[in-house]
Amino acid sequence: MSVDEPEVVAAPPPIPVAPPPLVISFHNGPAIRIALSMGFLAFLCLLVVGQLALPQALVFVWLAAAGFLAVFLYRRSTGQRLSVMNGARLGWISGIFGFVIVTIILTMFVIALSEPSVVATLREQIKTRGIPQANLDQTIEALHSPSGITSVLGLFFLLFTILPAFGGAVGAKLLDRD
User: Fold this and answer.
1) pLDDT grade, residue 158 (50/70/90)?
2) What dihedral do alpha carbons 144, 140, 94, 43 form, nearest 10°?
3) CA neighbours within 13 Å on the CB side: how many for 105?
4) What are the pLDDT digits (tens) for 86-106?
5) Looking at the whole model, is its pTM more than 0.85?
6) pLDDT at 1
7) Dist. CA 107–CA 113, nearest whole Å
8) Residue 82 burial (CB < 10 Å; 0-12/13-18/19+)?
9) For burial by CB atoms within 10 Å, which of 9, 109, 125, 175 has the most?
10) Do 64 and 88 form a contact (C-beta atoms < 8 A)?
11) How far apart (Å, rounded) are the C-alpha atoms in residues 69 and 171?
């Protein structure tokens, strides 16, 4: 190296920039996959509580837990921390998927109730469980009227959206602690 040659200094390597976190929405693939699975699990819990002699309050607990679990799984799979608002949004999306599943099943059930043989079979199953006949008659009557169906769907919509959103917000808040 001669005195006249300038010394070549290598440029420092660029500092890696983390990509911006994905927005929790219906366009976020990992969020949708997790929300769909949690919505399906929330629906399954509704079925299990309905089939077994479990306290009905477990439905409320599980729906909130589904939102919490969605946040936990999302954070674990992506490594992304969620704000309370994004946690609530992920829980809400989980609830929307659960509500859609409930709506499809309820629609098939209402159609099946138009067949007298299905109603007779249902009455026999209710007798073996010891559930009062008046409860079944009241349910069938409600599901034969548009206002009854709207009321049931409205209740399911509120349960499947508010509780998972609450669970998602709580999950984001609790899991953000390190």
Assistant:
1) very high
2) -150
3) 13
4) 999 999 999 999 999 999 999
5) no
6) 53
7) 10
8) buried
9) 175
10) no
11) 7
Tokens of residue 99, six digits: 């509500």
Report d(CA 137, CA 81) in Å as an integer: 49
CB 41 within 8 A of CB 66: yes
Residue where the block lists tokens 């936990």 = 72
Residue 70, amino acid = A
Buried b / exposed e over 130-148, threshold 16 CB at 10 Å, is eeeeeebeeeeeeeeeeeb
Ramachandran region of residue 52, left (φ > 0), alpha (ψ -120 to 50) or beta? beta
- Residue 165: which of 74, 65, 58 has the closest Cα? 65
Which pair of structure tokens corresponds to residue 130?
């010891």
C-alpha distances in Å from residue 38, one per residue of 12, 41, 48, 116: 46, 5, 15, 35
